[in-house]
Amino acid sequence: MTQAASVVSAKDLCLTYQADDAPVQALTNVNLDVRKGDFVSFIGPSGCGKTTFLRVIADLEKKTSGEITVNGMTPEEARKARAYGYVFQAPALYPWRTIEKNIALPLEIMGYSSVDQKKRIAGALDLVNLSGFEKKFPWQLSGGMQQRASIARALAFDADLLLMDEPFGALDEIVRDHLNEELLKLWARTNKTICFVTHSIPEAVYLSTKIVVMSPRPGRVTDIIDSTLPRERPLDIRETPEFLEIAHRVRDGLRAGHSYEH
């Protein structure tokens, strides 16, 4: 089988912030290849550089040294080519815009015709099971539905790469489980490449084809785990020995990373 094309490729990637008292190494020598169709989760304690890495991919932060390409381009070129959709921790919906108008925002900026906008909004709402809610305002929806609307907005212009920064972190466990299931269905239907930041070991193991374990500063990759789970994953797969074994390896990687602090 031929290997899928590389969507994100990082080689010896470093990012250092100049803080008042001393430089802070947010990312150190990160080497990673994200292939087309992968679902890659980044997990690690707060301050380990998970979100920073996502922001470097999105050209919201600039690397200090090393190399990174997104679809073979620099992050800046990829941003200008609109190569990715970004889903933030909070839904970040404008309260004065209806759901369809919120989803339309990037399409308006990109200059899509109103006919094309309408078609894309309907398709994106269908993908996240929000058809029929287009005329509602964000405050009329639950937290989980708002987050689905923000995923629809990221999907509307059909970028191949979806960057998701802890999108379900603020939701209760029942809603989170449901949205995890929905996200896997969405991934299967669209064949997007997804980079997903999380603090949750079960979430990382349940969703991913590959789990990137990161350590506290200086942010380093301590383990990259290829999942052996099938692509079809009912929620109760989380009770299987195979799932628990991967979760155990993630936990060990997190623990090993922490030992560097002492």
What's the quick description here?
Belongs to the ABC transporter superfamily. The chain is an alpha/beta fold and 262 residues long. It has helices at residues 50-57, 75-80, 99-110, 114-127, 143-155, 173-190, 201-207, 241-258, and strands at residues 6-18, 23-35, 39-43, 65-70, 84-87, 161-165, 193-198, 210-214, 221-226.
Termini distance? Answer: 45 Å
The CATH superfamily title of the largest domain: P-loop containing nucleotide triphosphate hydrolases
Taken from the alpha-carbon principal axes, the silhouette is: globular
Can you tell me the number of structural domains?
A: 2
CATH topology of the largest domain, anyone?
Answer: Rossmann fold
Side by side, the strands of the main sheet go 5-6-7-3-8-9
Q: Under the CATH scheme, which class of the largest domain?
A: Alpha Beta
What is the succession of H and E elements? Answer: EEEHEHEHHHEHEHEEH
Q: Helix count, per DSSP?
A: 8
- Integer average pLDDT: 89
Please tally the β strands and state the result.
9
What is the CA-based Rg, rounded? 18 Å
Strand content: 15-25%
Query: What characterizes the major β-sheet?
Result: 6 strands, mixed
CATH architecture term of the largest domain: 3-Layer(aba) Sandwich
Helix share, percent: 25-40%
Low-confidence stretches: none
Class computed from helices, strands and strand pairing: alpha/beta
Pfam families: ABC_tran (PF00005)
GO molecular function: ATP binding; ATP hydrolysis activity
Protein name: ABC transporter
Keywords: ATP-binding, Nucleotide-binding, Transport
